[in-house]
Task: structure prediction
Amino acid sequence: MPANRTITAAEVFVSSPSRNYVTLKITTSDGLVGYGDATVNGRELSVASYLKDHLCPALIGRDAERIEDTWQFFYKGAYWRRGPITMAAIGAIDMALWDIKGKAADMPVYQLLGGAARDKILTYTHATGWGFEELMDSVAQRQTEGFRAVRVQFGVPGLEKVYGVTREAATYEPAGRGIGPVTEDWDSAAYLRTAPQMLARVRDAVGDELHLLHDVHHRLTPSEAARLAQDLEVVRLFWLEDVMPAENPQLLRQVRNQSTIPLAIGEVFNTIWDCQQILTERLVDYIRCAVVHAGGISHMRKILALAEVFNVQGAPHGPSDVSPINMAASLHLGLATSNFAIQEHMGYDPLVSEVFTSHYTFNDGYLHPSDKPGLGVEFDEKAARKFEYRQAYLPVARNLDGSVKDW
Ligand code: GCO
Ligand code: MG
Result:
């Protein structure tokens, strides 16, 4: 059957309303426009080039309705598979095509995915404070805003800086500005002395109801992680995140065998194959891939379907370094997926809304993707051009002896 809705243009925008975002715009022969997020924090220009130089030219003339076939074409057909840059580029195309399909059908994307499997999506945000008092101010602020789940990060005595925490304000930016990444010191022993006490104090102060989460940012060895998990049992965390780098998923078994603490991992995973062992051996409770970094809605659906078989829940990454387009895509998927537990929503700098107009809503600790056709996020190209790309990187951590620490 000849296509009646072909792709006539595919353009890439790199803008920096407070931080860098890569946005793909696809236009069809009947005038529909779809948007996808392709942001990879600190590697924005690589994914922009992958799209502009290699994928966009091949999109022209393709049937915009054939989302799965387009996914397979760029994944299987490229010879080079997987990895964050490839998968974010494919992910952006996938999101933009779902956006178009929704607009063509005059339906929100969650309807095309089978309709709502829940009424609303539980969300968590971040609370940070160097010391206990500042941290509690930040937690209280988040509770006042209506959050029922809060990720808590704090300072470590003896260190100058800790990723995810600022000394001055309640928020942080995941990437610094300037040429090259800044270096921060890291001290696992000091962290392991601080974290159990600090989190126990927070639990005591907030009572039983508030969900508390904590992110270790891959910093520990398996034995250290197991010890921390044991020490934190009394805190009854919603989850402990990224306790160690997960290139060797089987090493998580040590933590599993030695504690009952729920584990979350996967924000740096890009495909179902990265998730396979962790899911099939149930080495985690929550799988954290972001829609953009794991090949878009089509591929994330498959990851969540595999997770469902093993009683693992979806809980996607949602920092400020994925754009509101990714956030909307994640919420449509979450509303339509039964094994979806919670969506991270770190929040955005006010400048972001000058470029992206989103329609998803927050109410009493829950998010909803909105009933606008498609993904429900508009992108203002003119405004985007005002905010030029600026180099920005995540910091690099070094142990006290000067050796590089894992991210
Ligand atoms: C999170 C994260 C972020 C990441 C950042 C990397 O759970 O939100 O760990 O803070 O480090 O998104 O780009
Ligand atoms: Mg994290």
The chain has a mean pLDDT of 96. The two ends are 49 Å apart (CA to CA). The first strand starts at residue 7 and ends at 15.
